[in-house]
Amino acid sequence: VNFYERQQRNRRLTALLIGSFVLLFVALGVAIDVAVAGLSVGGERFPYLTLVALLTAIGIAALGHYRGADWVMASLLAEPLRDGDAEHRELQNIAAEMAIASGLPRPRLLVIPDPSPNALAAGRDPAHATIAVTSGALAVLDREETQGVVAHEMAHIANRDTMVMTTVAVLFGGVVMLSDWARRSLYLARDRKSGGHLLALVLAVGLVAISPLLSRLLAMAVSRQREYQADATAVELTRNPEGLARALEKISSSRFPFRAATRGTAHLFIVSPLGRRADEREGAWAALLATHPPLADRVALLRGMAA
Amino acid sequence: MRPMIVFLALVAAVGVWGVWTYNRLIGLRNQVQNAWKQIDVQLKRRHDLIPNLVAAVKGAMEFERDTLERVMAARNRAVAAPSRQESVAAEGELSRALRQLLAVVENYPTLRANENVLKLQEELTTTENQLGFARQFYNDIATRFNTQQEVFPASVIAKQFGFQRTELFVADDADRAVPSVDLSLRQAR
Question: I need a labelling partner for A7 at 20 to 30 A (CA). Which of A17, A123, A166, B154 fits?
């Protein structure tokens, strides 16, 4: 498989995401500086807040880049494998098989104690990649199906999707939450005629102003195309489309909700953990909202490869 | 004067392309060699694992002593094989013996109550899978190397510097199913 183009695209996208994140912070800093200094740009006052915002943004971006996968996994309460557990041993063996099939180093493996069957991968590059599988997935899926799931995650690692996705989760998951909060508080603040909270107002307006841009960037990063590509690459690794197809069916038919997953991490999973109906629907509007393509389409495509 | 500059620029461009192509072929050749070594690593791993696994289930599988002995004999022949050709034949024989052992485990539900037997089943399955995937990866890389040598204009460089086609790993009939077929646990749960 030639991953080069996808990798380059994902590297550029990650740089763009981190760049806009830093710019966003700096813009907010400048806005507050201007507001505090009374609109006298280039006055005597040193733009402290701009500087602080710049340094904070670079700090968060750098930390997020190197530690992001750990944060994501910690937020999902993922645990290391246990020695002597037969299912964990099987997962370890399967990951070794997929590492050989893809020519990549073995990923770190974690288990998320949750009955909802699902899996995800995170990490900035193949040497620092982590694959986490829920205990529900290990219980429900047989060996072939687990192999398909792990192959799908290895494909994300090989394509460097994990690099973009982890960045999205760390940087923009937080910002999206912030801007949701800002919009709500702006809406509430309309009633009260208090001019005192100028700072909060500037912050809120800034966040609301950039949120369309954010959504656009997120939609670009969380392209549903990635999931189709990862499914196809997984089949190239296992040469067994049926395993992954059955795994997707089993995962989608499970009725357990995934409690630890949030809107900030949903895009990382093999099947959307939020159970949003948008993922099952067709059409442009659904395509805009969903982080994952319709499962029926994915399964049909995989079955098509088997024929 | 100007035609001279154009000519020199062309020569330089061809030179740069030649170096780049040569380096790419060298890179691919190293990948092919590395992938081949990975197969050897997997074969070695299989040789090392089998005695322990067989010893652990000897008691539980007393009534299938023939199958176990056949595996051990095939393993010993594979380890001792003096030449590449004999090694390939012996490894194929070992693969068949292991498949038979797994089929036996599959056919006796009582055996699967035994923890050692289950462990044997999983470890043998992954060993065979890892070997299969190492061969699959080697064939993918080797195919890319061969193709790169043959397509024009890279073929000019390949011929000039004496690059050789690499043999693909050809599975015999019994081996053909190894990478994709899950040998064991389909009905296990």
Answer: B154
DSSP A116: S
User: Is the pLDDT assigned to residue B177 strictly greater than 50?
Assistant: no
Dist. CA A269–CA B64, nearest whole Å: 45
ipTM over 0.85: no
Token pair for A6: 């996808």
pLDDT-derived band of residue A136, with 50, 70 and 90 as boundaries? very high
Structure tokens at A137: 């997935």
For the cut 50, the answer to whether the pLDDT of residue B156 exceeds it is yes
CA distance A24 to A28: 6
The tens digit of pLDDT for each residue in B91-103 reads 888 999 998 888 8
Amino acid in the structure at residue B57? V
Does the distance separating the beta carbons of A239 and B129 come in below 8 Å?
Answer: no
Mark yes or no for CB contact A240/B119 under 8 Å: no
* Total residues found in chain B within this entry: 189
Q: Which residue of B has its CA nearest to A144?
A: B182
Residue A87: predicted pLDDT: 92
| Alpha-carbon span A158 to A150, nearest angstrom | 12
End-to-end CA distance of chain A: 21
CA angle (A135, A136, A138) in 5-degree steps: 65
Candidates B117, B113, B91, B106; CA nearest to B178 is: B91
Bridge pairing between strands A108-112 and A130-134: parallel
Nearest CB among B126, B180, B188 relative to A93 is that of B126
Residue A144 in tokens: 């072939």
pLDDT of A47 over the 90 cut: no
Q: pLDDT confidence of B114, banded at 50, 70, 90?
A: confident
Q: Show the DSSP H helices in chain B as ranges.
A: 2-57, 65-80, 84-107, 115-150, 154-160
Mutate to test the interface with B, among A4, A92, A97, A246 (most CBs of B within 10 A): A97
B180:A239 CB<8 A:
yes
Quote the mean pLDDT of chain A.
80
